[in-house]
Amino acid sequence: MPAIHSDNIRHALKLYFIMGSINCKANPLHVLSEAIAGGITIFQFREKGPTALIGQAKFELAKQLQTLCQAHRIPFIVNDDIDLAIAIGADGIHVGQDDEPVSSLRKRLGPHAIIGVSAHTLEEAQQAIQDGANYLGVGPIYPTKSKDDAKESQGTRLIEQLRAQGILIPLVGIGGITLDKAACILHAGVDGVSVISAIAQADSVRDVTTQFIREIEMNQLNVID
Ligand SMILES: Cc1ncc(COP(=O)(O)OP(=O)(O)O)c(N)n1
Ligand SMILES: Cc1nc(C(=O)O)sc1CCOP(=O)(O)O
Ligand SMILES: [Mg+2]
């Protein structure tokens, strides 16, 4: 059974931690376990970049991180790698605009898989919704050092535009999100924030995660309950 039914994805998106081995100052298993202790609500394994693990080493790290998530009922999402997601029975996948279309992913992953799609424009968002995405990642909100090919940062403009159009799909903001910036993104209408470096690189992963949760709970709009 998946850790979460896709109907509950909105609540799970509250604090979406994304990480691969290259993002961590400490052992990735330790970083994830501290982030879980701090209160993350969903995790994405994004093993990407020049020194990223590949092959069996990538598979083994994914399995170890997934086991940790399963023990704490944290949904485990795989970035980009559909074969890996299927091989380990992940709860879902996150894909970008140049990846396999949602309709084909749905056939391969089944009706309960969480499928997240990155959207940078209203048109991309509408297409992903029509194709059956469960949530959208909107970014980069602010400049980021964690993605080499990130687009130009766009602030909260698209989030506000989507909500103003009455689009209710679960949304998560991404890109350069730090503690002091979370409130303004939440006020724009997202269900949660996605974070790599502000958590993975923190001196105390657990403390900063706890502070994110507090900030989110104080500023969440609750698009739908
Ligand atoms: C939650 C979330 N939102 C956006 C992204 C970015 O996905 P993508 O555009 O496919 O870029 P890469 O992460 O693959 O470099 C994401 N991963 N997660
Ligand atoms: C993985 C990713 N996707 C983005 C997008 O805009 O789609 S920005 C980004 C990196 C986010 O990392 P950090 O929290 O360290 O800025
Ligand atoms: Mg991608």
TrEMBL record:
Gene3D superfamilies: Aldolase class I (3.20.20.70). Binds 1 Mg(2+) ion per subunit. Pfam families: TMP-TENI (PF02581). It comes from the Bacteria. One of its GO terms (molecular function) is thiamine-phosphate diphosphorylase activity. Mg(2+) binds at D80, D99. The keyword Lipid biosynthesis does not apply. InterPro entries: Aldolase_TIM (IPR013785), ThiamineP_synth_sf (IPR036206), ThiamineP_synth_TenI (IPR022998), TMP_synthase (IPR034291). It is an enzyme of class 2 (transferase). 2-[(2R,5Z)-2-carboxy-4-methylthiazol-5(2H)-ylidene]ethyl phosphate binds at T144, K145, S146, G176, I196, S197. Pathway: Cofactor biosynthesis; thiamine diphosphate biosynthesis; thiamine phosphate from 4-amino-2-methyl-5-diphosphomethylpyrimidine and 4-methyl-5-(2-phosphoethyl)-thiazole: step 1/1. NCBIfam families: thiE (TIGR00693). This is Thiamine-phosphate synthase. It comes from Paenibacillus crassostreae. The gene is thiE.
